[in-house]
């Protein structure tokens, strides 16, 4: 701030006006969300600018009305920062309480000796989900159902049962779906990889048939990974198919049915195209600033799935949008 005193008079006056804009904006934020009590460092910065304003321009009002485009933009910017950093004064206590409740749910769930299966365990989400399930030891029996045998990285997977099936003849493999309490479906492909017909066959037909066999085999809680914007009436093939499979699985009337609608998944794909790589690079800064806006890390989806599975159901059907997935992944519970 010392260099401020050596600026030409006109620039000092401009700096003073800027400081006054900061001060007025801070007053607005103080009335809206107690910015000063929540951000001491920003408070000290604004206070120092106010003092400088008084020193350099004694004859002017200290808190003049904001004028001009710069003042308006400054108010908006500081208000946005205030909104972003505001927190509830009871946050630490409530956070600890929710963590304790979640841990209690995990322990109770573990004692029930539940079993689960994972569809699509070779995919980006499914592989991370399987890893977390194995490391958490929440299930007494874990089964993967897929079209090929998987190679696991270490001995922690030694108790995982692998069922290799032909998805074109799933009825012949009905036994693979029997005896599981919880089912996780991360099965899916892309139109670019499988073509339009192949995409519908995998993301709808295979998923629906698997859900039917799971229901017949005794599965009580079916978890389906869908997508943000899923709508059976959509004009776009991807979101239309996702909406249709959500509705068709719902008709099977599982005792508990949870649908996850993440936004753009952030992950390191094994088969990454240049456009996908570029998309991840572009969206990474957005994800850092606005984590629930248009992106969802795969790990976040997985944590939400596990937290939902171990928590007693508040309703039989849950449709979780992106923001709710982030909340559940953080252990904050559903609204």
TrEMBL record:
<protein>
    <recommendedName>
        <fullName>Protein HTATIP2</fullName>
    </recommendedName>
</protein>
<dbReference type="GO" id="GO:0005737">
    <property type="term" value="C:cytoplasm"/>
</dbReference>
<dbReference type="InterPro" id="IPR036291">
    <property type="entry name" value="NAD(P)-bd_dom_sf"/>
</dbReference>
<dbReference type="InterPro" id="IPR016040">
    <property type="entry name" value="NAD(P)-bd_dom"/>
</dbReference>
<comment type="subunit">
    <text>Monomer. Forms homodimers during oxidative stress. Interacts (via N-terminus) with elongation factor EEF1A1 (via middle-region); the interaction is direct and competes with EEF1A1 binding to guanyl-nucleotide exchange factor EEF1B2, thereby inhibiting GDP for GTP exchange and reactivation of EEF1A1. Interacts with nuclear transport receptors XPO4, IPO5/RANBP5, IPO7, IPO9 and KPNB1 as well as GCN1L1/GCN1 and LRPPRC probably through their HEAT repeats. Binds NCOA5/CIA.</text>
</comment>
<keyword id="KW-0007">Acetylation</keyword>
<feature type="domain" description="NAD(P)-binding">
    <location>
        <begin position="120"/>
        <end position="265"/>
    </location>
</feature>
<keyword id="KW-1015">Disulfide bond</keyword>
<dbReference type="GO" id="GO:0051170">
    <property type="term" value="P:import into nucleus"/>
</dbReference>
<keyword id="KW-0521">NADP</keyword>
<dbReference type="Pfam" id="PF13460">
    <property type="entry name" value="NAD_binding_10"/>
</dbReference>
<dbReference type="GO" id="GO:0003824">
    <property type="term" value="F:catalytic activity"/>
</dbReference>
